Amino acid sequence: MTTSLIVQKFGGSSLKNPERIAAVADRIARTARSGPLVIVVSAMGDSTDHLIELARQLSQRPDRREIDMLLSTGEQVSASLLAMALHERGFPAISLAGWQAGIRTDSRFSVARIREVNAERIQHELAGGRIVIVPGFQGIGSETGWDEVTTLGRGGSDATAVALAAGLGRVRCEIFSDVDGIYTADPRVVPDARKLDDITYEEMLELAQYGAQVMMPRAVELAQIWSVPLEVRSSYSTETGTRIGGNMEDVSRVAGIAHQAAVAKVTFVALVDRPGIAQTIFAALTIRQVHADLIVQNIGHQGRTDLSFTVPESDMEAASEAADEVRENVDAQSVTVKGGLAKVSVVGAGLSSSLEYASIMVGTLGELGINIDMISTSGIRITCVIDGDRVHEAVRALHRAFRLGGEDSWSATA
Ligand code: ASP
Ligand code: MG
Predict the structure, then answer these.
(1) Which residues line ligand 1 (CB under 6 A)?
(2) How many CA atoms lie within 13 Å of 253's alpha carbon, on the beta-carbon side?
(3) Statement to judge: residues 345 and 225 lie in one domain
């Protein structure tokens, strides 16, 4: 049976050594018998981290253009090796660098965004019966007047796969990794976590942003914008994974519990309450590429207010630096930076329809005597910032409280 074109993406852990690459080649060889394939690959194992480490050994602040030149090689190694492994199995395959594959981006090094996919070359190779292998995470930008190699940010191969699936006519996109789908919680923390058959883009986006490391959040967003049908699957089994797509309206449930460790909280205490103050603070963070999240400003008292937000612990130093820089400008009494925190989030399309979820969440944490540092919500997510040492306990308790392990998952009566 001939099927239509599929884009398949294989993550770094699925390609971490020659044996794994061979196994991926075997798997692709089986699928290739029934239809055309475009394969997107990540760099082998931890090789991106190793390349960054190499750069650090030679320069404190390596030039960003050169970082992109360097990091783009990681994915090219996987692509060419996989092509060779397929040749060895008697399959016609060709690897293309990002620029050859027509992936055009803006020109922001290390955080480039895909602007357009010109799939002419890929189409040509497919028409010739070849399996086309594209290195993820890279493209080419020409806003400066010259073509420059760019990279898309950590985890960016997912974005490449989604963009290609969209550019090739909204074809199916399968994301292969060492997990076999999206779970109701991290199975390493919650032994009876369940694999979900389906999840909406919105739910997946919230889970990815709040800790599920299965997919790059930006890629989920792109899939939603371009209506690309996604599936997260295991590269080691032939079982179906979790399909991402579908419609929010049809779902009234809690999808899962996400968590994120190594979170820090920054608080500006008693800063002046006047327009432009928050802007000053966030500009200083943005310049340092610190991503602030869960931003909370309290009610003002006598022209003063407190402003808190969270940052990844790895950005604590940069955030402190930014705070020192603007502290006098915003006339804050003091700034505190506290690490060792974690976020725990309940996510589900049903959250928008009932208040019960919030009270179950805070009630569950309260019963455990876990103090809530901050609370933040979106339409389909409730996040609490808590002590990092207790986050696993909190995830397990919430998973139980929302009955996510059993057959009949919990659903509030609106
Ligand atoms: N190799 C890059 C990274 O490790 C991109 C990716 O894996 O998607 O972030
Ligand atoms: Mg990787």
Answers:
(1) 12, 42-43, 48, 74, 136-137, 154-157
(2) 16
(3) no
Q: In this structure, which residues have their CB less than 5 angstroms from ion ligand 2?
A: 12, 42
CB atoms under 10 Å from CB of 333, counted, come to 11
How do strand 230-234 and strand 242-244 relate by DSSP bridges?
A: antiparallel
Cα-to-centroid distance, 62 and ligand 1 (Å): 19
Is residue 372 a part of any domain in this protein? yes
Atom of ligand 1 nearest to the CA of 154: 9
If you measure from the C-alpha of residue 50 to the centroid of ligand 1, how many angstroms do you get, rounded to a whole number?
12
Distance CA 412, CA 203 (A): 17
Residue 215 Cα to ligand 2 midpoint, Å, equals: 11
| Cα 79 to ligand 1 centre (Å) | 13
Q: Do 342 and 263 touch, CB atoms closer than 8 A?
A: yes
**Beta strands, E only, 289-355:** 293-297, 304-312, 334-347
What DSSP state is assigned to residue 370? P
pTM for this predicted structure? 0.91
Q: Please tell me whether residues 262 and 231 are part of one structural domain.
A: no
Domain membership of residue 124 (yes or no) is yes
What pLDDT does residue 1 have?
Answer: 45
* Domain final residue, candidates 217, 244, 271: 244
299 and 233 co-located in one domain? no
CA Rg, the chain, in Å? Answer: 23
Q: Is residue 95 part of a domain?
A: yes
Q: Is 240 inside any structural domain? A: yes
* Nearest partner of 193 among 259, 240, 239, judged by Cα: 259
Per run of 10 residues, the mean pLDDT along the chain (length 414 residues) is: 84 97 97 96 98 96 96 98 98 98 97 97 98 98 96 97 97 94 96 94 95 93 96 93 80 89 95 89 92 88 91 95 92 94 95 87 97 93 97 98 74 47
Residue 333 corresponds to which tokens in the numbers above?
Answer: 């009494």
Range of the domain at 141: 6-244
Phi and psi at residue 55, to the nearest 5°: -60, -40
Residues 170 and 197 both lie in one domain: yes
126 in Cβ contact with 135 (< 8 Å): no
Atom index in ligand 1 nearest the CA of residue 46 equals 4
